[in-house]
Automatic annotation (TrEMBL):
GO terms for biological process: sulfur compound metabolic process. CDD domains: SO_family_Moco_dimer. This is Sulfoxide reductase catalytic subunit YedY. Its cofactor is Mo-molybdopterin.
């Protein structure tokens, strides 16, 4: 394998979707100084955060809202205006307790079984690395991001906007692996990935196992990732190896992946059959309801957020198209009465990444309701209102995501 080559902002702008055998350094002091890539966090913290659990102790406590030991949200004022989310600010969501660091003691020896192909076999990370290395920038977002805005009190973590981030995943494209194993077997309609969490005894594994199926059409975008933002993938975020499906909600990006099978049907585990289903309020989950697969177009303002003096200000935010590129963003200062075109900041890292945006505005004293509305490359725009549903999934309505700004 060739030695790593440095990646510049120009490289990323010219080769956005997947940058083969390249890296964008995001952890060093030099990279942190680059506003165009990592942005800034302009507001002071108003809350004293709780303590981080041991497995996430390396994260930036002041930039997170700790909802529970398994759920940590990036503060809205910590999202900033950057193209990429630093790993220590990235939200955390676990369906099961995070396994210990021992699973990553020998990363290259981690094994994943591939079935439903012409020549099924187990492969180590070391073997996967010989097949090819590519990097993709993609938004990682929990299905419940925005749940806190649902008035019926949807159960689950009350995420606001911070259960999302844009990061670099490095690994081998799943298509490359499958082709090396003779291709997908006939009659297979889904890619089913199984996590490597240790399951408690005495409980039916199907009721708690993290095992998700996505349509086989996702094969050409999926990647088996072993790096996050140019560092070894932390166990906190699914290391040593994670199934990453750009454009799909986070639950489909299975952590500590141990088993990948191409299957004729979706898995019969609870998390697939009745979990993560878009259903009416008061209705139980069922397999005939839409599954939380592909993300939709979305945006929100990140700064300023509360009170600011009169004068000329820059309104910042982030926008993404989910499974499509985001094409444009508009900002309204009066709750949607009038709209102005915002401009994108920084390089375009591809259709699955988010685009920071900015609007310059002269603000006189008064109260403003600042909202943003994104449109993707297919012409789909954010709706005004949320789609009411039992679990508060898939919220991309622009109205709820606005902020009230007081100008003095």
């Amino acid at each position: 394998m060739r030695a790593k080559e440095p990646t510049t902002t120009l490289d990323l702008a010219q080769n956005p979707p997947m940058v083969s055998r390249r890296r964008l350094l995001v952890g060093s002091a030099g990279a942190l100084a680059s506003v165009s890539l990592l942005g800034f966090s302009p507001l002071a913290r108003s809350q004293t955060p709780a303590t981080l659990p041991d497995y996430a102790a390396w994260k930036s406590l002041s930039d997170l809202i700790v909802h529970s030991a398994n759920t940590m949200e990036t503060r809205r004022d910590a999202i900033g205006s950057g193209v990429l989310t630093p790993s220590d600010k990235l939200f955390v969501r676990n369906n099961l307790p995070s396994p210990g660091e021992a699973i990553a003691t020998d990363r290259d020896a981690w094994t994943v079984n591939i079935e439903g192909v012409k020549n099924p076999r187990a492969l180590t990370i070391a073997e996967l690395k010989t097949m090819g290395v590519e990097t993709v920038a993609a938004v990682l977002q929990c299905s419940g991001n925005g749940r806190a805005f649902f008035p019926h009190g949807a159960s689950g973590t009350q995420w606001s906007v911070g259960a999302a981030g844009c990061v670099l995943w490095t690994g081998v494209p799943l298509r490359t692996v499958v082709d090396a194993l003779g291709g997908v077997a006939d009659g297979m309609n889904y890619i089913t990935s199984t996590g490597g969490e240790e399951l408690p005894e005495g409980i039916d594994p199907k009721t708690i196992r993290v095992e998700r199926s996505v349509p086989v059409a996702a094969l050409d975008r999926a990647i088996l990732a072993w790096e996050l933002n140019d560092d070894p993938l932390p166990v906190t975020h699914g290391g040593p190896l994670r199934m990453v499906v750009p454009g799909y909600y986070g639950v489909n990006n299975v952590k500590y992946v141990r088993h990948i099978a191409f299957t004729p049907n979706q898995t019969d585990t609870k998390i697939q059959v009745s979990g993560y289903r878009l259903r009416d309020i008061g209705v139980k989950g069922a397999s005939d309801q839409p599954s939380m697969w592909e993300m939709n177009v979305k945006s929100w303002v990140t700064s300023p957020l509360e009170q600011t003096p009169q004068g000329r200000h820059m309104i910042y935010g982030v926008a993404f198209g989910g499974s499509r590129a985001v094409a444009s963003v508009e900002v309204s200062l009066d709750g949607g009465g009038n709209w102005q075109q915002a401009r994108f900041l920084g390089p375009d890292l591809g259709p699955f990444a988010w685009r920071p945006f900015v609007l310059a505005a002269n603000l006189a004293p008064g109260d403003y309701r600042v909202v943003s509305r994104a449109t993707d490359s297919d012409g789909n725009s954010q709706p005004e209102n949320r789609t009411e549903n039992e679990r508060g999934y898939g919220h991309n309505g622009w109205k709820d995501h606005g902020v009230t700004l007081k100008v003095t």
